[in-house]
Automatic annotation (TrEMBL):
<keyword id="KW-0067">ATP-binding</keyword>
<dbReference type="GO" id="GO:0003677">
    <property type="term" value="F:DNA binding"/>
</dbReference>
<dbReference type="InterPro" id="IPR002543">
    <property type="entry name" value="FtsK_dom"/>
</dbReference>
<dbReference type="InterPro" id="IPR027417">
    <property type="entry name" value="P-loop_NTPase"/>
</dbReference>
<protein>
    <recommendedName>
        <fullName>FtsK domain-containing protein</fullName>
    </recommendedName>
</protein>
<feature type="domain" description="FtsK">
    <location>
        <begin position="1"/>
        <end position="158"/>
    </location>
</feature>
<keyword id="KW-0547">Nucleotide-binding</keyword>
<dbReference type="GO" id="GO:0005524">
    <property type="term" value="F:ATP binding"/>
</dbReference>
Length: 202
């Protein structure tokens, strides 16, 4: 059990960018091609991440038996993040797949969203629009932190947060938006958020 209590923790990041834009190019050189995917190999990386999650679940069973209500953090394990950029565009591209394969991928992502938090396998999704077609309800409802940057249409707000969401009467500029997170801001009344500009990425 000593491996669970190492002080140094190195988190891992998996990135999918279907359009091969800045996110893909930056990820390829910072985290490596094995942890980066575009549209063509996105499903393989999703399955790889899911396999890592199942392996971690098995590894933590012994720890959870003697440590109730604990998470991967208490076990000293690193977080595994899977960032999917342009999720709407990616999911649209899957329409050419057989329904059985599409359903399998949706099931895997739902499993990660539902099971991953306690295990430290975090699903991070970015999309330009949010509706029932963009992201299945089973995935969307499991997302803990929800952020809408910039001005969005009413459907996006209602789909992402809740049907009765109250949007602050603010004209958002670049880097501004609203968020919800348990204990800080509810989905009915999300709070204002400002994200700093990262000039070092230029």
């Amino acid at each position: 059990m000593n491996k669970y209590f190492q002080k140094k923790v190195d988190h891992e990041l998996f990135i999918i960018d279907p359009k091969r834009t800045d996110v893909y190019q930056m990820a390829k050189f910072t985290i490596g091609i094995d942890h980066t995917a575009d549209k063509t190999n996105s499903i393989n990386l999703i399955k790889q991440f899911h396999d890592r999650m199942k392996k971690r679940q098995n590894e933590l069973q012994e720890y959870f038996k003697s440590n109730r209500n604990k998470t991967y953090k208490d076990a000293g394990l690193p977080a595994l993040f899977m960032l999917i950029d342009e999720f709407g565009a990616l999911r649209e591209s899957w329409k050419t797949l057989a329904k059985k394969e599409r359903d399998e991928v949706d099931s895997i992502l739902s499993d990660v969203a539902f099971m991953g938090r306690q295990l430290g396998c975090i699903l991070w999704v970015a999309t330009q629009q949010m509706n029932a077609q963009t992201m299945p309800t089973a995935i969307r409802e499991q997302l803990v932190l929800k952020i809408a940057l910039g001005d969005s249409d009413e459907q996006t707000y209602r789909t992402l947060f809740s049907s009765g969401v109250e949007i602050p009467p603010v004209l958002f500029t670049a880097g501004q938006g609203i968020y919800s997170y348990p204990g800080l801001a509810g989905t009915e009344k999300p709070r204002l958020l400002t994200v700093p500009y990262c000039s070092f990425l230029n």
